[in-house]
Every structure is written in structure tokens, then in C-alpha cells.
Write a structure and sequence with these properties.
This protein is 25% helix and 31% strand. Strand 14 and strand 15 form a beta hairpin. The protein has seven helices and 17 strands. The strands form four sheets. Strands 12-15-14-13-16-17 form a six-stranded antiparallel β-barrel. A five-stranded parallel beta sheet has the order 3-2-1-4-7, sandwiched between helices. The protein is of the alpha/beta class. The radius of gyration is 21 Å and the shape is globular.
């Protein structure tokens, strides 16, 4: 029987994935990663909490599959938490889900699969894999059919070996259908609300989290308009991201938005909504799921997971690139990723750099 190691968070998506894999004839073993210390937290519902791991174990028992927890807290701190804080200190807005997928979740799933003699790994992400008959059977990553839930954006950093071994059953499903399956099975996660927050930060208070972790971030500095004139003062650049409107602390008769964060000068720049749009951006740390491109080519690009991919010209030189959009895009944030698509296929992407 084909064996697959499944990452189980305790949520409805990975729970239904376990059921679907078993129905497809796989021998399923569930793995929950202990990512972050949950003691002292009042909200234990996040995907890295003790309660979610216990929920995954109960679901595995109900479905009749093996389950085990694996402690990766040290690695998570080194590869996700510390780079997360460092990026904010540099005036950037990192995506911790992408960091986790690249350095923790998928590498450790593959490692556990190898230990257990499993040929496959699986997760509950809404995306699809398929073999490209025109490219010697190369495995391609494609968008999930549920446009509202598509999670291919956060998977562009997978390695070739991870993608080759990966099964993504939910890529062919829409979220309401997944919840109906869970309700029909009587799974405890069936109606659990989805969290839109960073899993290791309670109450979405990322600024408070960062200040406890790195008190030196709270260095006051100027808030300036786009001409450079100081019009206010901030209490740390980590509290600001491109496109932010609320919490600026600067009185104005018209709405103002963060347009740039200059870490070297410890300055936050604000301006009109139009000034928060960008036609061009630079990327580095490129990752490719297809043979790496060079020179200039056209593709569609996402600069955040929830947006529609939009047309652009991409110019690649080594491990860096420039994206020139056909139309200016709203508030691309340094530290986030620009992900390249060709129709439904993910080509690759890179980290957006400060201007």
C-alpha cells in the first residue's frame, strides 16, 4: 500500500485531507509540528498551539490513522521567528507562512517520510500538482480551483524533491464542500472558524510580539511627507507597512497612507493613496519551480496571496529581477513575495526589495 505522511494542523483542511487520502487507498500517517511555545497564551487555537495538536491527534484516531507530534521549536525560532523580527527591523513586512513552508513544514515532512519509508507527503493546501508530459514528467504546481482559497502563492519556495513527492487533494475542492465532508464525518474541526492571523502571534498584536522579542526596535523617528518634510514622529518602524492607513498618528484632512519605510534613516514616509501605487519593483532570492528564466519575459504576478495575478514584464539577471506591471499596483510591500504565473502554473518568485 502506498504510504503518505500528512501534515496535520488540527484544522478542517488537513483533517479532510487525511480522510480523502485514506479513501484513495493511501496508508496515511499524520504529523503535527510543535512550532512555538504555547504556555502563557490565552488564545490556543492557532495552528502551532497545543490544543490544535491535540485536536489533530483526536481526528487521526477517529479516522483510524497513525499520528505523531514532532518538536521543531528550535528550528522554527531560528528559521522563522528570528528572520521575521530581523525583516521588520529592516523596514520590511515578511511573510512567515512562506518562511515556514520553505524551512520547516515541507523539509521536515520530507524527512519524516524518508524515516517512515513513505514515498509521498501531503498537506491541506488549496493548490494542485500535475506532471508535465512535455517536460520529461516534471511536476508542476498549479492554482487550486477555488479562486478564493487558492494557496499556490505560499508554495512557490518548494524544492524539486518536495514538489515531486507532494499530494494536494484539496486543490480540486472548494472550501464549502470541504466543510460539508467534515460535517458528514462528524469531525470536530468542521465548523471551526479560520484564523486570518499569524499563527504564533496572539490577538494579531505583531508589534507587541516584536517589542517583547527585540525591545531595541522601539526607536522613535520622523514621519515625513513625500517631499521629506517631517510632520510627525513614530515609535518604531516595525509598526508600519506600505499601504497602511490606520494608526499613523498624523492629523490630516485627507486620508494618508504609508508609501515608504527607510530603515537606514529610521523614517516613515506617508502620502496620498495614489502615491502608494507602484509600477515597478525589484526582487531577489529567486526560487523557480520550472527551469530558471533569464532575460525578459512576460507573466502574471501576485504581490499578495489574496489578489488576482496581473500582467507584467519580468527582467531577470542572476538571482535578482525587476517586475514592470502593465498597470500600477496597490502597495507592494518589501519583504512580501512577488510570485510569477503562466496561466494556472506557478513559475517561481522572489522577495520584494525596498525602493
Amino acid at each position: 500500500m502506498r504510504k503518505v505522511v500528512l501534515g496535520m494542523s488540527g484544522g478542517v483542511d488537513s483533517s479532510v485531507t487525511a480522510y480523502l487520502l485514506k479513501e484513495q487507498g493511501y496508508q496515511v500517517e499524520g504529523i503535527s509540528f510543535i512550532l512555538w511555545e504555547s504556555r502563557g497564551r490565552t488564545d490556543l487555537s492557532g495552528c502551532c498551539s497545543l490544543s490544535s495538536t491535540q485536536s489533530a491527534a483526536r481526528t487521526a484516531g477517529r479516522l483510524g490513522i497513525l499520528h505523531e507530534s514532532v518538536d521543531v521549536r528550535d528550528e522554527f525560532i531560528e528559521k522563522v521567528i528570528e528572520p521575521f523580527a530581523e525583516a521588520y527591523a529592516q523596514g520590511m513586512t515578511p511573510n512567515p507562512c512562506i518562511l515556514c513552508n520553505q524551512h520547516i513544514k515541507f523539509p521536515f515532512l520530507l524527512r519524516e517520510a524518508e524515516k517512515r519509508g513513505a514515498a509521498y507527503i501531503a498537506t491541506g493546501h488549496y493548490a494542485r500538482t500535475c506532471r508535465d508530459a512535455a517536460a520529461d514528467g516534471r511536476v508542476l504546481l498549479k492554482k487550486g480551483i477555488d479562486e478564493k482559497k487558492d494557496q499556490s502563492y505560499v508554495l512557490y519556495v518548494l524544492s524539486g524533491s518536495e514538489l515531486k513527492s507532494l499530494i494536494l487533494p484539496l486543490g480540486e475542492y472548494r472550501k464549502p464542500a470541504v466543510r460539508e465532508i467534515a460535517r458528514g464525518l462528524g469531525l470536530e474541526a468542521a465548523d471551526r472558524p479560520e484564523s486570518q492571523e499569524i499563527c504564533f502571534i496572539e490577538d494579531n498584536d505583531y508589534a507587541g510580539f516584536l517589542e517583547k522579542l527585540s525591545p531595541e526596535l522601539t526607536v522613535p523617528g520622523p514621519i515625513a511627507d513625500t517631499t521629506g518634510r517631517q510632520i510627525g514622529q513614530h515609535q518604531g518602524i516595525h509598526r508600519y507597512t506600505i499601504g497602511q492607513r490606520k494608526g499613523l498618528g498624523v492629523p490630516s484632512l485627507v486620508p494618508q497612507y504609508v508609501t515608504r519605510v527607510d530603515a537606514a534613516a529610521n523614517t516613515v514616509y506617508i502620502g496620498s493613496r495614489d502615491e502608494a501605487f507602484s509600477r515597478e519593483l525589484s526582487v531577489r532570492q529567486l526560487s523557480w519551480l520550472v527551469p530558471s528564466r533569464s532575460g525578459s519575459f512576460r507573466a502574471e504576478v501576485k504581490v499578495r496571496s489574496t489578489m488576482q495575478a496581473v500582467p507584467a514584464r519580468i527582467e531577470i539577471a542572476g538571482d535578482t529581477g525587476k517586475v514592470i506591471f502593465d498597470e500600477p499596483q496597490w502597495a507592494p510591500a518589501p519583504g512580501q513575495s512577488a510570485v510569477f504565473y503562466e496561466a494556472e502554473t506557478v513559475l517561481g518568485g522572489g522577495i520584494i526589495q525596498p525602493q
